[in-house]
Amino acid sequence: MNIFLIYGGKSAEHDVSILSAHSILKEIYYDYYTVQPVYITREGDWIAGEMIHSAENLLTKEEMVLELGTEAKAFDLMQLKAPDSIAFPVLHGPNGEDGTIQGMLEMMSVPYVGAGVLTSACGMDKAVSKKLFNAAGIPQVPYISIRKADWRVNKEESMGACEDALVYPMFVKPANLGSSIGISKATTPSELEKAIQFAFEYDRHIVVEQGIDARELEVAVLGNEDINTSVPGELVKEQSFYDYKAKYLNNEVTLEIPANVTPEVKKQLRKYAADAFLAIEGNGLSRVDFFLTKDGKIYINEINTFPGFTQFSMYPRLWEKTGLAYGDLIEELIQLGLQRHEEKNSYAARERE
């Protein structure tokens, strides 16, 4: 079977996507698969590299950034429909993790790895996913969502809504980005205004959350109908907030796996992770992030439908500590994607009868 490994993309998480794809490339079982690298430039152009048949002719991280030339050509999307193939979109953020590329693959009837259209769209939008978590009864910290149009019309009203419902410090986040991009911590009104302005540079809808003194814990989820959860892991940090560069490029965050928590907290974290996965109609994979306060209260932070797969990333390391090796994890994700595709085709066949 051939894997179309799609990475890069137009989002601000372009660089993390390349790192994730390179890590996955090294762990694919080449006894069973060939890999077609497909790089999406920051401008949205699709470029195909040479086919990879074994671990002996892998690309380096630098070579993953393909340029048109003798060894790389413009990629024809119709190649995705080749028999015995599956698409593996290793794309984080908008145009990759938000249901857009998933919708294109669905329209082309191409099997693919990862969450479906609805799951991706709901998981990507923090404002939407928070509403779904509320409906599922999963505890969350207080928050306010603000639309850019409302901010333009009346900044004072939006600021007032935040300060009436929340106390400092507050964290301001674009609704549709991950990897700490566009996120700021505000401890004063002037910082809050700047943080909101900054977040609106990345999205037209933002979320302002109540800051709390808590540990940050994460649980990996895997499956379609059969939902599996990993042991919890913890992000151990020397300061309260790390940005995108510190987390992914400089590796300044330590991961403690499994997290040092009581059996009761571990059980509740895994239950809430499964509940969150169900709340967004999850399939394939997700990483669910939580806060744990000193008095033992658990709050969901967010869900990521295609979390980082770099050598520093929590998701594959959580599964490794749970008993599923990196290569086996990739294989399981491929099989889940094929399973979902076959099931959807069977429904479509019945509709045509």
Describe the protein in words:
The structure is a single chain. The chain is α+β, with helices and mostly antiparallel strands and 353 residues long. It is built from eleven helices and 15 strands. It has helices at 14-27, 100-107, 117-124, 126-135, 148-153, 155-165, 189-199, 244-249, 263-279, 314-322, 326-352, and strands at residues 2-8, 34-40, 46-48, 73-74, 85-90, 143-147, 170-174, 184-186, 205-210, 214-223, 228-229, 233-236, 254-256, 284-293, 298-304. A hairpin with a 4-residue loop joins strand 14 (284-293) and strand 15.
Give me a quick take on this structure.
This protein is of the alpha+beta class and 353 residues long.
As residue ranges, the low-confidence spans are none
Spatial separation of the terminal alpha carbons: 30 Å
Mean pLDDT level: 92
Coarse structural class: alpha+beta
Order of helices and strands: EHEEEEHHHEHHEEHEEEEHEHEEHH
* The CATH H-level homologous superfamily of the largest domain: ATP-grasp fold, B domain
Number-wise, the strands total 15
Shape: globular
**Spatial extent as radius of gyration:** 20 Å
Q: How many domains?
A: 3
- The fraction of residues assigned to DSSP E strands is 15-25%
CATH architecture of the largest domain: 2-Layer Sandwich
The CATH C-level class name of the largest domain? Alpha Beta
Helix content: 25-40%
Q: Sheet with the most strands?
A: 6 strands, antiparallel
